[in-house]
Amino acid sequence: MKRNLAFHGKTKHIDVYHHFIRKLATDEKIMLKFYSTNEQIADAFTKSLSHAKHQFFKSLLGVCDFESRGKF
């Protein structure tokens, strides 16, 4: 049986992290919490969003608008 080692090398860390996180959750050292798409604040940094959703996430992060006071 031939294995694609390049593919395996890129996905092996996923297996390691999966089992590590699962063990922590089982041992109740961490608690995993589900967040819906509307609560994923990190999307503001990783996705192209509508203006309204961008403004919403910006307010959750506490980011304010910058007002230019003229030329520097």
Automatic annotation (TrEMBL):
<protein>
    <recommendedName>
        <fullName>Copia protein</fullName>
    </recommendedName>
</protein>
